[in-house]
Amino acid sequence: MLLVAVVSALLLHAASVAQAQTLRLAYYNQTCPSAEAIVFDEVQKAYKVDNRTAAALLRLHFHDCFVNGCDASVLLESGDNQAEKNADPNKSLRGYDVIDKIKARLELACKQTVSCADILAYAARDSVRVATGWFNYKVPGGRPDGTVSKLSMALANLPPHNQRNVTLLAKSFTVKGLSVDDLVVLSGAHTLGVSRCGTFQYRLANNNDKGMNATFRDDLRRRCNYNAANVAPLDAGSQYGFDTSYYANVLANKTVLESDAALNSPSTVNRVRQLKNDPSTFMRSFELSMGKMGALRGSSQGKVRDNCRRVRM
Ligand SMILES: *[C@@H]1O[C@H](CO)[C@@H](O)[C@H](O)[C@H]1NC(C)=O
Ligand SMILES: *[C@@H]1O[C@H](CO)[C@@H](O)[C@H](O)[C@H]1NC(C)=O
Ligand SMILES: *[C@@H]1O[C@H](CO)[C@@H](O)[C@H](O)[C@H]1NC(C)=O
Ligand SMILES: *[C@@H]1O[C@H](CO)[C@@H](O)[C@H](O)[C@H]1NC(C)=O
Ligand SMILES: *[C@@H]1O[C@H](CO)[C@@H](O)[C@H](O)[C@H]1NC(C)=O
Ligand SMILES: CC(=O)N[C@H]1CO[C@H](CO)[C@@H](O)[C@@H]1O
């Protein structure tokens, strides 16, 4: 009984600490003035070597924030528990090496100062910046690094890619205080990157395509050729350009994931049309929704890590 009371007091305390900390722009201006420049430099270098880096880093930040808040738990190596990294949708996450390089440089410049969670948020922004060549939205800093990463949390929190009902799909957003509109806008990140055929191949079987454009489906059948390891662009015809063609593909029923096809539903289709037709509205909305997502807080708060893959004791 006493133990229970002590534990809940601790939890309340942890929650109030998390609430009290607010993110702010130029967070490392005094403590590590080169922080954001170092992140940008490394993202740019990695992008020049392999432009798939942009999609990988955006996805890492997204997966991080959806599981226990943006606390860099996605980067932790699994110990006794199976970590988020091993969760099925995470299996194809890449970009860890880029984060390691950034962190190593930041440790030299300013020891144990810049959190891995902030690195992920800055690196996601810089991925958009290098992919567009210009769009450089503001990202506040001050996210604490977390201490736990569990497979079960990842499976329970990530939006299901095979969900067609937009209300149910948006549940993973609404339970976190994000909206259906955030779902529509943040799905626009699928303007970059690919999906493994194994993820969506079930849709290519006869009578299982639920409205997918037939020409597109036949192309996918050829491309996948029953090999789960083959890949297809999430944004057909424009997988490297950060643009609004993803929304055109949603409207044309030419998306590989059911969760993308879901946006072509009566409750969201008007917003999809608007975003497709007006790139500057998309960019502005993307910045706002990324800001909301990037402010999701974790419950386990640790020290700033010196290695993003390990909790610092
Ligand atoms: C960062 O600090 C410098 C001086 O050290 C100051 O001139 C600048 O306005 C600060 N920038 C922000 C965004 O706070
Ligand atoms: C989507 O799911 C909600 C909640 O379960 C349900 O009320 C609604 O009818 C479903 N919509 C469709 C189109 O199936
Ligand atoms: C997309 O699929 C829906 C059915 O899910 C259908 O009503 C609509 O006409 C299709 N649109 C196009 C452009 O093929
Ligand atoms: C499917 O896409 C092809 C071109 O890729 C287009 O010619 C055709 O009209 C589309 N089908 C439907 C039903 O919209
Ligand atoms: C990205 O890299 C691929 C393969 O190296 C190349 O075909 C494509 O043109 C590049 N796209 C951009 C926007 O740099
Ligand atoms: C940490 C981890 O489990 N990474 C896995 C992610 O997915 C790739 C490809 O399926 C595996 O090779 C990794 O082991």
Automatic annotation (TrEMBL):
<keyword id="KW-0479">Metal-binding</keyword>
<keyword id="KW-0575">Peroxidase</keyword>
<dbReference type="GO" id="GO:0006979">
    <property type="term" value="P:response to oxidative stress"/>
</dbReference>
<feature type="binding site">
    <location>
        <position position="67"/>
    </location>
    <ligand>
        <name>Ca(2+) 1</name>
    </ligand>
</feature>
<dbReference type="GO" id="GO:0140825">
    <property type="term" value="F:lactoperoxidase activity"/>
</dbReference>
<feature type="binding site">
    <location>
        <position position="159"/>
    </location>
    <ligand>
        <name>substrate</name>
    </ligand>
</feature>
<feature type="binding site">
    <location>
        <position position="243"/>
    </location>
    <ligand>
        <name>Ca(2+) 2</name>
    </ligand>
</feature>
<feature type="active site" description="Proton acceptor">
    <location>
        <position position="63"/>
    </location>
</feature>
<keyword id="KW-0964">Secreted</keyword>
<comment type="function">
    <text>Removal of H(2)O(2), oxidation of toxic reductants, biosynthesis and degradation of lignin, suberization, auxin catabolism, response to environmental stresses such as wounding, pathogen attack and oxidative stress. These functions might be dependent on each isozyme/isoform in each plant tissue.</text>
</comment>
<comment type="similarity">
    <text>Belongs to the peroxidase family. Ascorbate peroxidase subfamily.</text>
</comment>
<dbReference type="GO" id="GO:0046872">
    <property type="term" value="F:metal ion binding"/>
</dbReference>
<keyword id="KW-0325">Glycoprotein</keyword>
<keyword id="KW-0349">Heme</keyword>
<feature type="signal peptide">
    <location>
        <begin position="1"/>
        <end position="20"/>
    </location>
</feature>
<dbReference type="InterPro" id="IPR033905">
    <property type="entry name" value="Secretory_peroxidase"/>
</dbReference>
<keyword id="KW-0408">Iron</keyword>
<feature type="disulfide bond">
    <location>
        <begin position="197"/>
        <end position="224"/>
    </location>
</feature>
<dbReference type="InterPro" id="IPR019794">
    <property type="entry name" value="Peroxidases_AS"/>
</dbReference>
<dbReference type="GO" id="GO:0005576">
    <property type="term" value="C:extracellular region"/>
</dbReference>
<feature type="disulfide bond">
    <location>
        <begin position="65"/>
        <end position="70"/>
    </location>
</feature>
<keyword id="KW-1015">Disulfide bond</keyword>
<comment type="similarity">
    <text>Belongs to the peroxidase family. Classical plant (class III) peroxidase subfamily.</text>
</comment>
<dbReference type="InterPro" id="IPR002016">
    <property type="entry name" value="Haem_peroxidase"/>
</dbReference>
<keyword id="KW-0106">Calcium</keyword>
<keyword id="KW-0560">Oxidoreductase</keyword>
<feature type="disulfide bond">
    <location>
        <begin position="116"/>
        <end position="308"/>
    </location>
</feature>
<dbReference type="InterPro" id="IPR010255">
    <property type="entry name" value="Haem_peroxidase_sf"/>
</dbReference>
<feature type="binding site">
    <location>
        <position position="73"/>
    </location>
    <ligand>
        <name>Ca(2+) 1</name>
    </ligand>
</feature>
<dbReference type="GO" id="GO:0042744">
    <property type="term" value="P:hydrogen peroxide catabolic process"/>
</dbReference>
<dbReference type="InterPro" id="IPR019793">
    <property type="entry name" value="Peroxidases_heam-ligand_BS"/>
</dbReference>
<dbReference type="Pfam" id="PF00141">
    <property type="entry name" value="peroxidase"/>
</dbReference>
<protein>
    <recommendedName>
        <fullName>Peroxidase</fullName>
        <ecNumber>1.11.1.7</ecNumber>
    </recommendedName>
</protein>
<feature type="domain" description="Plant heme peroxidase family profile">
    <location>
        <begin position="22"/>
        <end position="312"/>
    </location>
</feature>
<keyword id="KW-0732">Signal</keyword>
<feature type="binding site" description="axial binding residue">
    <location>
        <position position="190"/>
    </location>
    <ligand>
        <name>heme b</name>
    </ligand>
</feature>
<keyword id="KW-0873">Pyrrolidone carboxylic acid</keyword>
<feature type="binding site">
    <location>
        <position position="235"/>
    </location>
    <ligand>
        <name>Ca(2+) 2</name>
    </ligand>
</feature>
<feature type="disulfide bond">
    <location>
        <begin position="32"/>
        <end position="110"/>
    </location>
</feature>
<feature type="binding site">
    <location>
        <position position="191"/>
    </location>
    <ligand>
        <name>Ca(2+) 2</name>
    </ligand>
</feature>
<feature type="binding site">
    <location>
        <position position="84"/>
    </location>
    <ligand>
        <name>Ca(2+) 1</name>
    </ligand>
</feature>
<feature type="binding site">
    <location>
        <position position="69"/>
    </location>
    <ligand>
        <name>Ca(2+) 1</name>
    </ligand>
</feature>
